[in-house]
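ok trying again, last paste got cut off:
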Amino acid sequence: MTSEKFTKIADDAVASWCAQYPDEATFLGEHRYDDRLGDPTVAAAQRRRAQLNTLIGQLAELPADQLDTADAVDRDILRTAVQSELLALTDLDEASWNPMLHNPGQALYGLLSRDFAPLPQRLSSVASRLRQVPDYLEAARGRLSDMSKVHVETAIGQLDGTLALIEGEIPAALAEAGTGTDLSGEISQAAAAVRSHQDWLRGQLPGAQRSPRLGKELFADKLALTLATPWQPATLLDQAYRDLDLVEAELSELTGRTTGSGTADRAAIAAEFSRLAADAPTSDTILQLCREALTETTEFVRRHDLITLLDDPVDIIEMPEIDRGVAVAYCVPVGPLETAPLAPQFAVSPTPTDWSQDRVRSFYREYNNHMLHNLTIHEAMPGHVEQLSHAHRYQASNRVRGVFISGSFVEGWAVYAEELMAGLGYRSDVSAEAAAGVRMQQLKMRLRSVLNTILDVSFHTGDLDERQAMELMTVRGYQEDGEAAGKWRRVQLSSTQLSTYYVGYLEVSGLVAELRRAQPSWSDRQLHDEVLNYGSPPVRYLRQLLGLPPAE
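nice, full thing came through this time. structure:
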């Protein structure tokens, strides 16, 4: 009876979350709210806080000893998700100072980007959301105050992408649908509202003096909920600096062995990265190179029997202009609530059309042909696409684990997958140089994940400045200036997410090693399948599901 009660509470919680955030519900595959935008008002936030406090009370009344292991884990995952949302609505209150949260572009894009329903039906929802844009942005202005300059500047730029979507992609979709539907009025009014909102934000710039740093206490509270671990920021920072030295030592040994020079210093490592960076794609070649890399990574996984391949179709798409300029690729999984027969997307990015030649050159030196193979491992095979496809098949008594996935597990698995493939000699069948090139890029990405954590913690709990951050990334991380500059902006705009790569890698790789010791007769495929058989929970709960003791 207790499990039935929890299932009812869990399903109601997911339903109320989707109703509160209809744009995110669209991406999850819950389409009952596709005709709505969210409500950015203080009154809506107050109502939501009341719902969440009631939910916390309901969860507290469930006796843990009367739930089976899976439901007990899902109760804890749901409780963490609720606590995280409550923090966002109370002490953090980001909606009052981060204008990036109030951009209707993604809500519109979510209706165009996936064929979950006939295009005319989706365009009907687009029309409804377009009509709400003026009131939505007016309400956002009533909520926003005490903003930081970097958040305001970024929001203004991102709204340019929203305008391109409204005035370009929506008319193109209407033409494709061929129904003769006229949304010119809705498009004109929504575009005018976005431009007016941009003008208002520009007017706020002189007074946008808020620091983007969260501070020690707030960052620690958010980090604990993001990672679902007891890591303290100072301890995590110390561990990251130790691992930074270890990864650099691996790079030194590999570079020395590759170049025949013995142990390499930083100058020699930088020179080797520069040589590899010269083998760069272009905007004309990058999509095809990623298609070829996906074929190659899939064949390697199959040949080495690393995981049960689900052989789901994957849509390799050109990244829309609204998302370009941050990374060269990302994965869009099938929403956990989606019933339409969709395929996961592996989106690959040519550079934005307004970039200078120097900026394009820097971007493709960072995301060179060797890095593209490593990135394909991370984003697609056997990283995000394959892991999330396994998770999509997990059958539970409720929808909690599908909706509230652990970012640290998802990113940790992908970073672990990079190391797994490079360690087994991926591309050695092409040449020893090709395999060494991927291994160099994989170690560079390990450096990046460690540095992400150092930057995240040092900025939000300390006084890390731009000069120090750029030196860390370009010297110790061997990153191109453009990549480092973009990451510095991201550090200021976000908090705690950058730590998920490193912490997730530590947890996933440690879990796989412990499971291997516990089951020495298992093959790699058996081990990896077992890790991926339970959705995407935090590793601390995955240990519980696997019958392993808590990590020390």
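cool. The chain has a mean pLDDT of 94. The first strand starts at residue 315 and ends at 318.
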